[in-house]
Amino acid sequence: MNLNHISLPVRDLDEAETFFTRDLGFVRIDRKADAILILEDGHGLTLVLATLKGANGADVAYPEGFHIGFFLDGAAAVDAAHARLARSGHEVGRPPRPIRDRYGFYFSCLGGLLLEISAER
Description:
This protein is of the alpha/beta class and 121 residues long. It contains two helices and eight strands; from the N terminus they run βαββββαβββ.
């Protein structure tokens, strides 16, 4: 069984599109007005972002501990991602470090979505 897609609610589809395409390298496949955005990562993952109805600009309340992890090819790629995100104005917090058997970092974006970016050590 392979994971085909993930659907996430977001408060601002334009902001989410900019973040995932500019900062994480996703490619826009389709967009339905201000309702749904379909992106692909080039590695088989489709990400479907949907505007959270009724949010009125409020942060989306993801469950505590919920996060999405992205795996990169080595520590240098993790360091480069951390630097690129910081240059783009994201609050990326502490530099990458050992996390369990990986090397990486966590940061929040898009009003409360927690991301993990890591690689094998």
